[in-house]
């Protein structure tokens, strides 16, 4: 099947309908309405596997596949679909608005027509926020429209164990830089490059608008032998300080790469972020299987 792919930055959908129809998915809570446009099927794919859920791990790659979109007005054998996406919090606070995602000024003759949306759930979630994605597909040469709305929530990645004394954060997760996706399990390989990413770090003591963090890493095998070790990856920030607002706004990350060889698994990863101007610390631990 020929495909049009759309890359977005947000989330969610599943299950389709027919022209002049309304439907609700009792599993996901999704509602869809066809008014002049029809869709044979909508599916959610995560890491290439079809899923039927509306709870997503922060940052994971979610692909929404719309199969058999039909009912468009044809001009010279082509159709001209368009898509918009809005994500709102439960209180109707808009957090994402993407209009004219396709921009197919020349139209398309693909048939059967499939549209894909590749999204990442990267919204605040520590307070159990509830969201809804609202997707509209319409015919730019006619009156047909198809809408799909689904509530969703975002959950923490359970791979990492985080303990903090007053240092706050928005999200902490492991990222596969080579495959461009969040890591959901503890399997790693020497062929790929990984990042442990910390977002929205806050709560460090500021002096003259600067904070003075220190960040250490220790990776050992199951016999306690060191594989990776660095007592402070942020030495310049510890010495000279970094603007407190910029430190919170920007990502802090630890790069992880492994040389080829045999590892005595499981390996234990320990990361510590410390405020050198107070007693505040944030500890991250996890067990990894390195191949």
Structure report:
The protein has helices at residues 235-240, 244-249, and strands spanning 4-7, 21-24, 31-35, 41-46, 49-51, 55-57, 62-67, 81-89, 94-98, 114-119, 130-139, 145-155, 161-164, 171-176, 181-182, 187-188, 194-199, 210-211, 213-220, 226-230, 242-243, 252-256, 267-275, 281-290. The strands form five sheets. Strands 2, 3, 6, 8, 9, 11 and 12 form a seven-stranded mixed β-sheet that branches. It contains two helices and 24 strands. The chain is mainly beta and 291 residues long. It folds into two domains: 4-155, Coagulation Factor XIII, Chain A, domain 1, CATH 2.70.50; 161-290, Coagulation Factor XIII, Chain A, domain 1. Helices cover 4% and strands 46% of the residues. It is elongated and about 65 Å long. The model is unreliable at 1-18 (pLDDT under 50). A hairpin with a 2-residue loop joins strand 4 (41-46) and strand 5 (49-51).
Highlighted features:
Coagulation Factor XIII, Chain A, domain 1, 2 domains, single chain, 2 helices, 46% strand, 6-stranded mixed sheet, 291 residues, mainly beta, 7-stranded mixed sheet, disordered N terminus
SSE layout:
Elements: E1 4-7, E2 21-24, E3 31-35, E4 41-46, E5 49-51, E6 55-57, E7 62-67, E8 81-89, E9 94-98, E10 114-119, E11 130-139, E12 145-155, E13 161-164, E14 171-176, E15 181-182, E16 187-188, E17 194-199, E18 210-211, E19 213-220, E20 226-230, H1 235-240, E21 242-243, H2 244-249, E22 252-256, E23 267-275, E24 281-290
């Amino acid at each position: 099947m020929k495909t049009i792919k759309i890359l977005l930055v947000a989330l969610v959908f599943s299950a389709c309908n027919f022209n002049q129809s309304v439907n609700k998915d009792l599993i996901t809570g999704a509602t869809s309405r066809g008014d002049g446009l029809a869709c044979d099927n909508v599916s959610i794919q995560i890491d290439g596997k079809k899923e039927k859920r509306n709870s997503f791990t922060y940052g994971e790659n979610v692909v929404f596949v719309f199969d058999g979109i039909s009912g468009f007005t044809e001009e010279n054998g082509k159709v001209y679909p368009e898509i918009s996406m809005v994500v709102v919090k439960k209180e109707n606070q808009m957090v994402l608005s993407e209009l004219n995602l396709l921009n197919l000024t020349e139209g398309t003759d693909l048939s059967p027509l499939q549209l894909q949306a590749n999204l990442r759930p990267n919204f605040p979630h520590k307070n159990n926020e509830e969201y809804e994605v609202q997707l509209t597909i319409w015919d730019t040469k006619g009156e047909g429209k198809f809408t799909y709305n689904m509530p969703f929530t975002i959950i923490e990645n359970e791979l990492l164990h985080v303990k903090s004394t007053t240092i706050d954060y928005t999200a902490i997760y492991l990222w596969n830089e080579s495959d461009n996706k969040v890591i959901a399990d503890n399997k790693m390989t020497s062929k790929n490059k990984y990042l442990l990413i910390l977002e929205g770090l806050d709560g460090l003591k500021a002096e003259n608008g600067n904070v003075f963090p220190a960040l250490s890493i220790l990776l050992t095998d199951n016999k306690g032998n060191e594989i990776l070790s660095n007592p402070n990856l942020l030495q310049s920030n510890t010495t000279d300080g970094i603007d407190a607002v910029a430190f919170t706004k920007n990502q802090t990350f630890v790069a992880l790469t492994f040389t080829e060889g045999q590892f005595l698994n499981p390996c234990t990863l320990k990361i510590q972020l410390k405020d050198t101007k107070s007693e505040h610390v944030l500890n991250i631990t996890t067990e990894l299987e390195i191949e």
